[in-house]
Amino acid sequence: MAKSFILKGDLVFNKVKDKLETIKDGFLVCKDGEVEGVYKSFDEIGDEFKQFELHDYSGHLIVPGLTDLHAHAPQYMFRGLWMDMELLDWLNTHTFPNEAKYADMDFAKKAYRIYTNDIKKGATTRLVAFGTIHTDATLMLMDLMEESGVVSCIGKVNMDRNSPDYLVETTEESMRETRRWLEEVCKKDYKNTMPILTPRFIPSCTDELMKDLGKLSKENNLPLQSHLSENLSEIEWVKELCPWSEGYGDAYDKMGCFGGEGRKTVMAHCVWSSEEESGLMKKNGVFVAHSPSSNSNLSSGIAPVRRYLNEGVNVGLATDVAGGSHGSIFRAVSDAIQVSKLYFRYIDESMKPLTLAEAFYLATKGGGAFFGKCGSFENGYEADILVLDEKSIPTPLDDLKLDERLERFVYLADERDIIHKYVRGNQLF
Question: Which secondary structure element, helix H or strand E, spans residue 296, and what is its range?
């Protein structure tokens, strides 16, 4: 059960996308797993909360937990490998053969234990992730994520065409196993782990399968995740497969797999989305999972995140391991800033680069909105909290402001410098 407590330290968080809120030697009050408020002094705290246990982290940065909106859990084992190919060749040559190994439950347990242990120790407090087509291995992943204490949406992948013989289902098998997976999830007493429908992407799913998943999502109000407009060759392939559609996003929409009606949907990458496509994303409430590392590693391009923000599209950050070569959303913050500068300089100088405040917003409140009220220290938000240690990045500068200290941490530190982590008010370490 979530505790009530007070943390003292140097607070940094977003209320809006373009400004950081900072309180030096501030107080964060958590009541029953939710943020009650932040205060500049102890005297400002209401008398009914002053008896809460006080944890003094003076001198340490205290920030909201980070959300990873898109990752491939089975690919974590080969992150940092085989980065010399573009998307489709990379999938066929390396990704599919390695994902097939998860039919072996002993292998799956070993690999997923490594992944979930690292997630628990890292900055991610909310996660949206793909499993594989293997139902039992995906259930094991969900069990391990539940043990970790991190809040997650995990999906059993669907693939019934354009896939190798060793990693493909029939349409009937794919839907039958998806329903079995959902039935098994309902039997479990998960507190932090939720299912999310996961058609890999349109090239690997027939129209029939996509429509069945869209219907299942609507009937059960289930969230859905997939990939959208990541790579130019992929986009051309979708045009061939769906000549009846007006575009990649429109194809998802016509098959009932593109949000709307209150159904939450994450689309990863969106590197080449047109204004019409992003307009449909805004209309349907679709979340863009921006994956700057993966987009660079697989030569996909640079997503127009500034345009999405200007248009009011929901955007969060993602590691996309193993297309992304690291599992840190802190690293994704700096990557997002850097690639936005390249977009500004080489593609469209009307699209100003992301600032630290904006990129940190994407990592916290922006992506966190997929899960509801999390990713900020505003009243009523779930208490996902990181306490950071800057000892590994010493400096003789003793007059740095809190936002400057956060910037240094984003660019220089690593996840071993997190000394405490809370999810929904529960301390994981």
Answer: helix 292-297
Q: Which helix H or strand E contains 35, and what residues bound it?
A: strand 34-39
Strand partners, 23: 11
Which residue reads 């990939």 in tokens? Answer: 227
Instruction: Calculate the CA dihedral of residues 399, 401, 405, 408 and round it to 10 degrees.
Output: -80
Given this model, what pLDDT does residue 83 score?
87
DSSP letter string, 173-196: HHHHHHHHHHHHHHHS--SSEEE-
pTM of the model: 0.97
Q: How far apart are the first and last CA of the chain?
A: 15
**For the chain, percent helix, then strand, then coil, each to nearest 5?**
40, 25, 35
- Chain segment 271-303, per-residue pLDDT in tens: 999 999 999 999 999 999 999 999 999 999 999
Q: What are phi and psi of 11, to 5 degrees?
A: -90, 135
